[in-house]
Amino acid sequence: MYLIVVKFQTKPEWTDRWLGLVEDFTRATRAEPGNLWFEWSRSVEDPHEFVLVEAFTDDGAAPHVQSEHFRDAMALLPQALAATPRIVSRQVEGEGWEEMGEMRVDPTPTGS
Known about the structure:
By secondary structure, this protein is α+β, with helices and mostly antiparallel strands. The protein has 5 helices and 4 strands. Keywords: Monooxygenase, Oxidoreductase.
């Protein structure tokens, strides 16, 4: 699978509108056959930084970057950014999320 993490630094005037700006791109990407996940988070240290964690099947990454919604996003998003996004993109073994081996949490009933 391809695991990709991208950090986006928004201009202050775009920070509160960022998730709305990427909404169509997010929805279209999540609907792609090879997409495993496409999840946005906001930095707890920098309110103008958004982190995208995405994963694709081995066959799904290339069609993603060739899609119309990807090209549209690459043209639309720079207006809201203060810097070029930073990315880590690697092909890794696995097919999705696994439990962390170093920690075990036994579920407790709600309300306990």
